[in-house]
Structure formats: structure tokens, C-alpha cells
Amino acid sequence: MIEKIESLITEEQINKRVLEIAKNICKDFKGKEILLICVLKGSIMFTVDLSKRLDAPTEFEFIEASSYNNNTISNGNVVIKRDIATNIEGKNVLVIEDIIDTGRTLKKIVEHIKTKNPAMLKICALLDKPDRRIVDIKADYIGFEIEDVFVVGYGLDHAQKYRNLPFVGIVKMEDN
Ligand code: IMP
Ligand code: MG
């Protein structure tokens, strides 16, 4: 069996949507400086592409969370593995995530960021799987809503692979 990636969202579709989202963000932030918080590693591509379309001064920060699941604990416990490195008090923050699945990761990150007292806090996610949601969290900007399928590419991985693909696809197993 070999893994094959079937395209779900093309590079062109992503580019078009990134531009639309960037315009909406600029409208809401009203020309003020935006501190982009990239949630590692999945949102690297999206953060970079989105930042290039923002007609506003920007700064970058990075945060990484990991989720620990095991057979005995069903409610995934999310911990901040790498925190942002600067003081964001009074800044206008945009958290950028790759995908919202159960919502646990984003909820943990957003609650953590809120304790640092930003002036404004908005949430942006490239992909959303609303059917999978377990905790209540809503993004202000969503690229695409998708069904309950496992996707890779454009930052998203399967066992750390496929992050470099310029499109979003579904992993399929096929005979050699
Ligand atoms: P949540 O905490 O359940 O919302 O999961 C969010 C995290 O799980 C994302 O930031 C991704 O890293 C990962 N994830 C969820 N669904 C997918 C997928 O379809 N492909 C790749 N990673 C995923
Ligand atoms: Mg992620």
C-alpha cells in the first residue's frame, strides 16, 4: 500500500481566500498594527501568505501547543509547549491556527493569550471541521469549512510529513 494525496483545496482557491480574509482583517483592525501569533507548526504557510496580503504594519510571534491523549484519558489535555517571547499587553492580536477540530488546542491558546491582556484579540483559522467540535470556540475568520476528513498540506502534517505541499489534500491508501 502507498499513500497518495488527493487534492481537496487547490493552491488557487487558497490564494483567493487568503486575499479575501486579509481584506476583512484589515477592515476590522482599521489600519492599526497587528501582532500575528502563528500557532506552530501547522499554520506557518498560512501565516506567511496572509501576512503578505495585510495592508497594515505587523509583528510576528510564535506559540506551540501539544495535546496529550492516552487510552485512559479521553479528554485531550493541551499544554503550551512553547510560549510567545514578548510582552503583548495592549497590542492588537490575531491568533492564526491551521485547523479547528475538537477546538481544544485553540481554546487553550486563546485563554492563555487573554491572560497577557492584549487590547484586541481575534482568531483566524484556515480550516474548520465544525462536526468535530467538542469545546465551544469560534474563529472570527475561517478559510474553509470541511467535512470530517483528515487533511494534509499547506502546513498540515501526517506524522510530520506533507507540510510543504502547496495545496490541501486527503491522504488515501492505494495498492502499489
Ligand atoms: P483540536 O485541538 O482537536 O481542535 O485539534 C487541533 C490540532 O489537531 C490542529 O492544530 C492540528 O495540528 C491537528 N489536526 C486536526 N485535524 C487535522 C487534520 O485533518 N490534519 C492534520 N492535522 C489535524
Ligand atoms: Mg496545529
Report on this model:
This protein has 176 residues and is α/β, with parallel strands linked by helices. Helix content is 22%, strand content 36%. The chain has helices at residues 11-29, 44-52, 104-114, and strands spanning 2-9, 34-40, 58-68, 77-82, 92-100, 120-128, 141-145, 151-152, 168-174. A 6-stranded mixed beta sheet has the order 4-3-2-5-6-7, with helices on both faces. Helix 1 packs across helix 2 (44-52). The chain is globular. It starts with a strand and ends with a strand. The mean pLDDT is 94. Inosinic acid (IMP) binds at residues 42, 67, 97-106, 150-152, 156.
Order of helices and strands: EHEHEEEHEEEE
Q: Judging from the principal axes of the Cα atoms, what is the shape?
A: globular
Mean pLDDT: 94
How many H/I helices? 3
DSSP E strands, number:
9
Instruction: List cofactors, ions and other ligands.
Output: inosinic acid, magnesium ion
Head-to-tail CA distance between termini: 6 Å
Secondary-structure class:
alpha/beta
Query: What is the beta-strand fraction?
Result: 35-45%
State the major sheet.
6 strands, mixed
Rg from Cα: 16 Å
Please state how the strands of the largest beta sheet are arranged side by side.
4-3-2-5-6-7
Percent helix range = 10-25%
Given as residue ranges, the uncertain stretches (5+ residues, pLDDT < 50) are none
